[in-house]
Amino acid sequence: MASEELSPPDGFDKGPSNDFEQDVETIELTAGETLCGTVTGKDEGDGEFGPYVRLRINDDDRGLIDYFAKGEAKQMYFADDLAVGDDVWVGMKTETQEHNGNEYHPTICRVTE
């Protein structure tokens, strides 16, 4: 039955929220560093250097953080293998690789099944 003004029944109080309204620390991993926790939010778009993915993660050691996905984490997100609610581990390798004349530290990512 339709009505002019919709209102939820009692007890249905929580509505949608913007995961990124709360300002939290943004983490940039360095060689040998890791993060581990549950993905609680995601944001994606196009930036100066192409598409980006920002993940909000409840890190086991740091608490709530933002992480701009790189390497395997970014690949897994765009392949729908990494989503909100997943427990994720991300690490930056200590050895370097070369790509197009530039050296970088590869980022690896794993999620629980």
Automatic annotation (TrEMBL):
Residues 1-21 are annotated as: Disordered. This is Uncharacterized protein. It comes from Halovenus aranensis. The lineage of its organism: Archaea, Methanobacteriati, Methanobacteriota, Stenosarchaea group, Halobacteria.
